[in-house]
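Dear H.,

Thanks for agreeing to be a second pair of eyes. The structure we're designing against is below in token form, covering all 263 positions.
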């Protein structure tokens, strides 16, 4: 093949990648718009004061939801962290200043990178807990246990699936914020395109039941979707029928003694 043909092929491949990136970006925006009404309900507080003056930590941020939250709910500050921010993140962070008084700060950071995360909190002058923690389509990526698959693990662990430690994760999240809001897709029959090594893979029904069994014993759990439901030990019996009917769920978790969300 000639040099000219090689150059043309490279340009075509670049164009193909650019179109694919644009399609992915558009999907992120449309998904966020579709998911936001349910997430918005989980931010409601009992005292009727709204989110004025409150702070939010968005774990695994897509950068779009912080903008929607800022425009609609008007908290004082939103800090988003993700191990790999989207290409358009900096544009949203900068141009949001023209649209809202809410301060939006987005960082490349893992929830488990204590050194970097502590520096972010210090830089942003966050003292005490956030009002809210949002974990949108990210909870199943917070897998910290060893591989639970029955196979010989490859070195890159691409074929692996780590276990999920619900007690560790929710204790950590609730140490950071008063209310933890979870929006999660439920597609165990599909592959997780965002899977990194053994982290990822959608929760199975059994994993969900284990998570909620633990949460219902220790915390206040309120379902927003697929139905309004206060989770109790008795209501645990309904989980099977609920999970069989849906491809996503939205709920929030608080300490049982929390009457209202405070910053």
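And this is the sequence the design step returned. I haven't edited it by hand at all.
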């Amino acid at each position: 093949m000639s040099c000219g043909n090689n150059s043309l092929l490279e340009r075509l491949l670049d164009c193909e990648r650019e179109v694919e990136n644009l399609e992915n970006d558009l999907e992120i925006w449309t998904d966020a718009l579709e998911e936001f009404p349910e997430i918005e309900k989980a931010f409601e507080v009992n005292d009727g004061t709204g989110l004025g003056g409150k702070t939010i930590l968005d774990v695994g941020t897509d950068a779009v939801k912080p903008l929607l939250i800022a425009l609609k709910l008007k908290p004082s500050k939103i800090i988003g962290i993700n191990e790999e921010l989207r290409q358009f993140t900096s544009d949203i962070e900068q141009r949001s200043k023209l649209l809202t008084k809410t301060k939006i700060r987005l960082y490349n950071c893992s929830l488990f990178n204590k050194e970097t995360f502590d520096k972010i909190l210090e830089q942003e002058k966050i003292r005490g807990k956030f009002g809210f923690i949002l974990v949108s389509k990210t909870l199943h990526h917070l897998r910290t246990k060893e591989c639970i698959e029955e196979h010989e693990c490859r070195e890159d662990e691409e074929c692996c699936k780590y276990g999920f430690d619900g007690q560790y994760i929710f204790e950590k999240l609730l140490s950071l914020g008063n209310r933890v809001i979870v929006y999660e897709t439920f597609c165990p029959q599909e592959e997780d395109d965002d899977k990194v090594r053994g982290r990822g893979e959608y929760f199975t029904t059994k994993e969900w039941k284990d998570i909620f069994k633990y949460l219902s014993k220790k915390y206040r759990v309120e379902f927003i979707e697929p139905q309004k439901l206060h989770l109790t030990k008795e209501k645990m019996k309904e989980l099977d029928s609920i999970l069989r009917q849906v491809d996503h769920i939205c709920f929030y978790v608080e300490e049982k003694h929390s009457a209202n969300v405070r910053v």
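Two observations from my side: The chain has one domain: 35-255. Residues 141 and 200 are 4 Å apart (CA to CA).

Warmly,
E.
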